[in-house]
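To whoever is on call:

I kicked off a structure prediction for a single chain this morning and the downstream step that reads the tokens threw a length-mismatch warning. I double-checked the sequence; it's 47 residues and nothing unusual in it as far as I can see. Pasting both halves so you can look.
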Amino acid sequence: MKPNRYPRHEKLKHRNTIALLLKKENGKLVVIFALLLIAQRIMLPIK
């Protein structure tokens, strides 16, 4: 089995887990953390 190949239901399960995390009370913190990571990726090439 190749590690980079996953069944479709595994991807859907992963998306569902992300959706559940976003629905939790600390979902806002997860969103902010993700935005910070994206901001770092955008700011690094500028430097």
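Update from on-call: the warning came from a stale cache, not from the record. Cleared it. Sanity check on the structure: The CA atoms of residues 7 and 18 lie 17 Å apart.
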